[in-house]
Amino acid sequence: MNKTALTKTYTKDIQNSCLNSKKIVLSLATISFLASCTHATLTPEIKTYEETNRHAKARSGLQSRNSNNETINNLQTLTKTISGTGNTLVIESSGTITISNDGQQAVNFQPNSSTSTFLNKGTLIGGNNTASVQLGANTNNGVTIETFDNQGIIGNGSSKFGVTVWGGGSKDNPKSIINNFSNSGTIHSNTGESIYFGNAKISSFVNSGTIKSKQGTGVNISQGTSIENFNNTRTGIIEGKRMGVNVRSTINTFVNDGLIAATNDGIQINANVKTLINKGTIKGDAISIRSLGGTIETLINEGIMDGESAGIYMSRSLVKTLTNSGTINQNNSATWSAGIKLENGSIIENIINTGSIRSNAFGISVTGGKFGTLTIKDGGQVYGKYSAIGVGRSQTLGDLYIDGRSNNGTVSGIYSEEHGILLENNSRTQKIELKNGGIIKGNIDGIRLINSASLSGEMILSGEGSRVEGGRGVGILNRSGKIEGSIKVEDGATVTATSNRAIANSGSGSITGGITVSGKNTKLEGNIINTDNASIGSDIKIEGGAKVEGGLVNQGNGSISGSVQVSGGSSIDSITNEGNGAISGSITVDKDSKLDSITNTSTSSTGISGSITNNSDNKLEISNSGNIGGKIESTGSADMVISNSNGGTISGGISSSGSGSTSISNSQGSTINNGITVSGSAQVEISNQGSVGKDENGNTVTNNGSGSVGIKDWLVSTDKNTGKLNTVVIGGSRAFNVKVENITVDQSNVDLEELNDINNIISGVNQNNIGNIGTNGSGEISLSFDPITGKLTTDFNLNASISGATFRSLISTTSRRSTFIDNVMGNSMQSFALASSSKSQSIAMSEKGNLYADASDYIKSDLNNGSYGSNKEHSLFILPYTSSQNVELSLNEESKGHTKGTIIGYSTLKDSGIYGVYAGYEDTKMGSTYFDINNRTYYAGLKYFNTLFTTEKGQEVYIKAQGKAALIKNDLTEKIGNNEAKAEPNSYAYGVNTALGMNFISNKDIFSPEIGLAYEGGYTEAFSMKDTIGQATVKGGERTYANYLNLFSTKTSLTWFRDWLPNLKTSVELGAKFNINPKVEAEARFGNIKVSDEFDLPRVQKFVSTSFIVPVNEAFYFSLNYNGMFDKDGNTHTGFAQFNYLW
């Protein structure tokens, strides 16, 4: 500190100036002098304050007094009390006042005293329970001091307070007044404040030294105090445990160039501060600046603010303008914490950040209050682990501006490990603007609005390099929030997310102003998603060369009220409308723009209400299974593929007027209203299995173009009530150029009279351009057209009808079941004959190669002879079985099915032979494109077996016979398109068969040839097909008359048996069955037309059987078996394991 600020120093020769005479120190006013205003000179008796003190020291080693002026340069132990007026007190560096009395101060300025200068260069230590220096008295009158200057030590940490300044709070008890308060030394307290101001008025406070409190506050500016200028210089240190500086009264200007630090809060404010500037460091182990009810007009940080829980914390407080060009740090990761935090109604009207705000929790957070305008520019950055900017429940952020332009190369932006910007429940924001390369980045979401959070204005993202980046969440997420303005991404900005979700509007979220993506190099890297019950209330525009590297997905109950426009050379991959989503406007793709595909699977009644127009040069694929309310139109040179499926509807029709090719597919159950119109030079190919309505001129297809129009396939539908055909009407100036490759008549409920005239099916087309004509049934009704004569004829084929399918299935399963029963019963019965044979290696080799091969065919007789004990007289088996089989139900289609069943049989040995009885149940299910044949069969029968004789060479000749019957309950289904008809007739099967065989034995091998003859009869009740789903039958119904079946067949087979070990046997059998009369006659009625037909059953059935047999003991054996059967109509494969029991 310059001494001229503390003392009055003069030269011996003073110029003739009236002003120089006024510089005499007031404390020497008792010295008389005479001076002329013209020739004034200082007399030798008049001394400066310093000179007087020096002379006094020469005269006395203790102290010197001259009126109220005093200098101390020795050790004293009593309080120095200052009272009265006109005082000056100087403590030299050798001066010390140390007080041992706990309640006494080193220096006490009494109320109502006035002092021009207080200068301490020495040491002042008060009692342990009071201040080292006290000015005034609590609730009493204050003091007046022109200059308070500490260059030494006040307190050494032992006195409770360092300096206390007291004053009154009324006219009768005036405040203390200090014009200049400066500290370049040390002020150190113990439990109390180092400096306390109460009811004081300070013009200037300057600290360039150290102010420190062990347990309390560094500087406490209490109520009733005002400080014009508070300055902590670059060398200044203010430290406290509770607070560095506690501002409870008004400060006009607060400047920190040094260090303000505390264990709790660096600075705490609950008063008015006009300007607070930090160029140094403010550090709080809790909070750097805490405002509790305070008001700061201007808060400027050019230095460092470092807080453990918050950098700046405000409760019930106001900051009009906060400017940060320095660093604001918050260090812990508690979810309460933030770099800047507002609570309890606090407001920051304007924030300008060009520096750094970093937090391990939230960068800038308002959980109770309001941010006005937040501007991040000139390289400013905000980082928060949970959110860079967080607006809590029901709180407000006004306008947010992020300007990426910077002079130092640092890009302005906000960054977070989770959410860049987080707007929580019911929070409010007016505007978000990102420009000039600014960044908003969150590793989950870039921008996140949730649960009624609102953005009343626009979200504008613009400029080359500007980016909103999301991670595993979304770039911009509006989950049940409300964006009243629009989202604009323009002029080279990018919105992206690693999840491929650029923008998502979900829950009950709404975007009233729509979405616009515009400008060259502007990109969305990911999808635009509108889902759940969310809504977009205006247009979605992709324009000016912008790119959406993803699609527009509208799903759930999402709604888009505006149109979707792709223009100006822009591109988007796809548009998908699914779930119960609705797009009310049109979809337009302009020239030079690109949309790859449109998919509409929505179940909403509106679906896509508007039209779809493609005027671009890029191929567009449209897939619809919902509702498109408008027209689909291709006007450009691009190709277009339209697929309408799964009940989809295109209400406005389809128009192709450009030069590109158009492919139209309308599947079964789907509808195109208002016809198909072709003009220009377009090449159009049409495939229709659904319904195509007529245009205003009554045309189904109108061709006015110079290109080619081809109908690849067309299903002509039938009126459900009248049975009349919905004629395909070809119109337009070039109708005769339309070519028809294939046309199919829907025979469901068709009036057969309609099939007599080609013009009932298709009209307006050159008949020479008509190719194949048929029906959509199984082939029971066939059409042929002669384009020369124009004659259309109808033929019927019962072999392809439900009649043929039923007989093929029944005969196939009945024949296989008969063979199976013959074998199973024959095996059981022959074991008795083998038991009485003297040849231990002989084996009963009966009919093998049936659908259900039985291991008992191959068990050696030594199972029943002496090697195991007594002979057996009874045989019992229970056999669950299953098989898979292929049968030609529909002509030229092999249909897969399976059979599950159980058979139980018993045989007994008598002198006249072996007699057996059996019963069983099986369930068969078969299906094909046009038919389902399911039946349940209950069967029973009798079996006889006997050995006729044995030749001299040991060959055994045997005979067997069988009678059987079965009840078959059928469940028949006929399928025409999506329509079905059913019938449930009963069938009855019966038959007899006999066979003769011989066993040739060679060591361990046995070869057994066998021949047989069989009769199989059957009867199926007459039945009518009844429509169950839609109308599958022709108009007038379909009936199949009763059918009788009488089939004769022969059979031959050869079996090789090998006895490898006593407990291991194998056999292989090959054979064939020959049907003597394989023709079956049938009669039916279609409408009023009776039809009779004859169709062939397979003449030859081939079979192969293999067995792996393990005898267990004399009563049980186990076998693993396979059987395969093959004919021209199908095949069957069966494998199973079996146990048999004999006694």
UniProtKB/TrEMBL annotation:
Autotransporter domain boundaries: 869-1143
Highest rank taxon of the organism: Bacteria
Residues spanning the signal sequence: none
Annotated region (Disordered), positions in chain: 598-620
Stretches with biased composition (Low complexity): 598-616
Name this protein carries in UniProt: Autotransporter outer membrane beta-barrel domain-containing protein
